[in-house]
């Protein structure tokens, strides 16, 4: 067991700890928010694991926003707390790769020394929703978006992962840390979005948003080999990035052209067969249903700052199917295999790497979209 734990942030449940900080009422029968108060080497659940973090990432939700435009949402102070957002006092970070240090007695899938990805979601694997593959809605008290939100996350040297058999996936020796870094969250989200969109070979697919999640969605849509892919983005640097790395994709800027008309011209049936909304603004939500052809599928994976309205009178007769919500991140083994086969490569997205000691600088670059940043990796 490593002994250099001065920067370690730990998570644990109160029922496994005999003490409590006087006057601190944030500690309940569920998750304890306190840090650095226990022996980090102790496994407190027989189904959890404890690992050293090799590399983690900065994610838009770490700012309190998962929207497509971090600079606007965060810069104007629009922070909202829900189950996908970090509560005060929690160490953020939920995309990470690590090395297993210790496991509980019931953990069977991983062992000390294994290099693993960590899933964005905590899920028990036993409840009704988990058994159906709907792990985002796990009913366990610690289930759902926990790491980096309700439990201390991975922007640290060490992290605990409850339900390790579900939350960890072993990485093949041929895969680098950077290749695997995005598997547990944005790449899993893109994979899930493409899967539930039921994309066929003759489809015209439109992706709204060219940020990290949008590009990961693009990579997974490309695996389906549709007839045509259109990506809609307003940021010039992101537009240039997509054009440079994925020249076969049609890229449009809604500030420069009429996207509705463009999509009609590029589609065989008056609109997109599949629309995947990843950007998360009111404009993109409305655009998603407008550019879809009748009887199309509109998949909404974006997390919005405010409630959105479906104008049903205007939509009447389009007979659209909407699929919405958070990722069911249970395809990570399949994603890792696709990476091993070199069918998916997200390393171009990691434009910056910083040590943990310089994380403030990393956040400044990411939040303010400096230096053409897409994703930032953090190493201890």
Low-confidence segments, given as residue ranges, are: 1-41, 64-82
Number of helices: 12
Ends: how far apart? 17 Å
Radius of gyration from the alpha-carbon trace, in angstroms: 21 Å
Strand content: 15-25%
Mean of pLDDT:
83
Question: How helical, in percent, are the residues?
Answer: 10-25%
Q: Helices and strands, in N-to-C order? A: EHEEHEHEHHEHEHEHEHEHEHEHE
Shape: globular
* Number of strand elements: 13
Structural class: alpha/beta
Task: Sketch the major β-sheet.
Answer: 7 strands, mixed
Summary of the model, kept short:
With 380 residues, the chain is α/β, with parallel strands linked by helices. Helix content is 24%, strand content 19%. It has twelve helices and 13 strands.
Written description of the protein model:
The protein is of the alpha/beta class and 380 residues long. Helix content is 24%, strand content 19%. It has twelve helices and 13 strands. Helix 6 links the parallel strand 6 (204-208) and strand 7. The relative contact order is 0.15.
């Amino acid at each position: 067991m490593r002994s250099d734990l001065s920067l370690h942030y730990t998570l644990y449940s109160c029922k496994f700890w005999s003490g409590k900080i006087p006057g601190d009422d944030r500690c309940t029968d569920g998750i304890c928010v306190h840090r650095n108060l226990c022996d980090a080497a102790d496994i407190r659940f027989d189904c959890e694991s404890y690992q050293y973090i090799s590399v983690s990432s900065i994610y838009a939700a770490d700012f309190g926003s998962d929207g497509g435009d971090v600079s606007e949402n965060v810069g104007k102070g629009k922070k909202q707390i829900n189950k996908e957002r970090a509560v005060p006092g929690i160490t953020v970070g939920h995309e990470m790769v690590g090395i297993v240090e210790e496991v509980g007695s019931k953990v069977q899938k991983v062992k000390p020394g294994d290099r693993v990805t960590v899933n964005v979601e905590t899920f028990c694997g036993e409840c009704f929703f988990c058994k159906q593959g709907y792990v985002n809605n796990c009913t366990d008290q610690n289930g759902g978006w926990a790491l980096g939100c309700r439990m201390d996350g991975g922007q640290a040297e060490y992290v605990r992962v409850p339900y390790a058999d579900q939350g960890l996936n072993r990485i093949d020796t041929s895969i680098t840390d950077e290749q695997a870094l995005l598997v547990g969250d944005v790449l899993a989200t893109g994979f899930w979005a493409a899967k539930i969109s039921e994309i066929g070979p003759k489809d015209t697919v439109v992706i709204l948003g060219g940020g990290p999640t949008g590009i990961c969605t693009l990579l997974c849509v490309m695996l389906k080999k549709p007839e045509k892919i259109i990506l809609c983005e307003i940021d010039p640097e992101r537009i240039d990035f997509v054009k440079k790395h994925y020249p076969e994709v049609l890229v449009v800027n809604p500030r420069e052209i009429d996207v509705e008309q463009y999509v009609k011209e590029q589609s065989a049936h008056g609109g997109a067969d599949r629309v995947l909304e990843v950007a998360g603004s009111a404009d993109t939500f409305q655009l998603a249903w407008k550019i879809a052809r009748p009887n199309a599928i509109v998949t909404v994976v974006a997390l919005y700052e405010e409630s959105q309205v479906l104008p049903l009178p205007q939509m009447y007769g389009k007979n659209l199917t909407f699929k919405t919500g958070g990722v069911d991140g249970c395809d990570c083994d399949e994603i890792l295999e696709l990476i091993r086969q070199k069918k998916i490569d997200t390393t171009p997205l990691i434009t910056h790497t910083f040590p943990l000691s310089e994380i403030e600088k990393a956040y400044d670059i990411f939040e303010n979209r400096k230096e053409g940043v897409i994703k930032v990796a953090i190493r201890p």
